[in-house]
Amino acid sequence: QVQLVESGGGLVQAGGSLRLSCAASGIIISYYVVGWYRQAPGKQRELVASITSGSTNYAESVKGRFTISRDNAKNTVYLQMNSLKPDDTGVYYCNSFVHWGQGTQVTVSS
């Protein structure tokens, strides 16, 4: 059974930082594209960043502030979020192929 478990969300002031983790089991994430998505209240879920074996991609709104990385030994993907803005508020989800985590809440206060 595949599980993706996110952690690391919380409440932070604008300008602060958080690091999200996505720990995978039942799947070897290095074989797949892994993405971080977020969903703000009343809005559609959007792709924030993704990572493959050879490249990373970011939404324009987070370029230069967020960094996605992967630790294959831990089968975990991270999302380092710096210079956070209130617009970054939302539930952040980890995705790999058809599998989704339960999400972790990120709230950025102004």
Q: What is the H/E order? A: EEEEEEEEEEE
Uncertain spans:
none
Radius of gyration: 13 Å
Shape: globular
Tally of separate helices = 0
Major pleated sheet: 7 strands, mixed
Q: Beta-sheet strand percentage?
A: over 45%
Strands, count: 11
The percent of residues in helical segments reads under 10%
Measured between the Cα atoms of the first and last residue, the distance is 40 Å
Tell me the structural class.
Answer: mainly beta
Mean pLDDT: 96
Please name the defining characteristics of this protein.
110 residues; single chain; 11 strands; mainly beta; 4-stranded antiparallel sheet
Describe this protein's structure:
This protein is 0% helix and 54% strand. The mean pLDDT is 96. It starts with a strand and ends with a strand. It has strands spanning 3-7, 10-13, 18-25, 34-39, 46-51, 56-58, 66-71, 76-81, 90-96, 99-100, 104-109. It has no helices and 11 strands. The chain is mainly β and 110 residues long.
Précis, in short:
It is built from no helices and eleven strands.
